[in-house]
Amino acid sequence: MSWYRSTLFQEPVSLPELPFLIASLLAPVDHMYEIRPGALRMAVPTAEQIEHHIRLAAFEQNHLSFRSLNQQMWQIPLISMTLTGGLWFGVSRVEDFPLFQFALLFLAAAGNAALFIVIHRLRYVMERYLNWLENKYPPGFVSAHGDRWYHKSFVVRTSIQVTCSPEMSSI
């Protein structure tokens, strides 16, 4: 939605007109409001205009939510690698305490398992957003299902998880 900006400093404004000038700065351009000096009259929006604004707001909000989820999606592997690396370093420094080493390794495994569950839940929520966006505006949706077996989501996801796992990085 674009916003109407008045020429505030180009012409003098009398004190009684100031509230209407401020209201004109905040009024959307879609002609929902009629603002003139001395009167502020709100036009009654039609059901179609209300539905359009609701769909537009939902569409924009879902895109913003998806962008936020996408940011979290790429941060989780970094958190996992940092957690695992730090705990492995801790294990290497306490060679005299095998029970403490076991506790640190267990903490690393539990943290990675929890982050594994979180990332799968995040992928599920992102898939729901993608399905909604595809249903609401099919011409604007970019589909990347893959034509060959090695382009499929499961194969790509599994290969990345195997190659980036802490066990493979120590080989």
The stretches of 5 or more residues where confidence is low (pLDDT under 50) are: 1-14
Radius of gyration: 28 Å
Class inferred from helices and paired strands: mainly alpha
Mean pLDDT: 76
Instruction: Specify the number of helices.
Output: 5
Strand order of the largest sheet: 1-2
Distance between the termini: 54 Å
Strand content: under 5%
The total count of strands amounts to 2
Structurally, the number of domains stands at 2
What overall geometry do the principal axes of the alpha carbons give?
A: elongated
What's the main sheet like?
2 strands, antiparallel
Order of SSEs: HEEHHHH
Overall helicity: 55-70%
Secondary-structure map:
Elements: H1 18-26, E1 33-36, E2 39-42, H2 47-93, H3 98-136, H4 153-163, H5 166-169
Antiparallel strand pairs: 1-2
Describe the model.
It is a single chain. The protein is mainly alpha-helical and 171 residues long. It folds into two domains: 1-44, no CATH class; 47-169. Helices cover 64% and strands 5% of the residues. It contains five helices and two strands; from the N terminus they run αββαααα. It has helices at residues 18-26, 47-93, 98-136, 153-163, 166-169, and strands at residues 33-36, 39-42. A two-stranded antiparallel ribbon has the order 1-2. β1 and β2 form a beta hairpin. α2 (47-93) packs antiparallel against α3. The longest helix is centred in the middle third of the chain and has 47 residues, at 47-93. Residues 1-14 have low confidence and may be disordered.
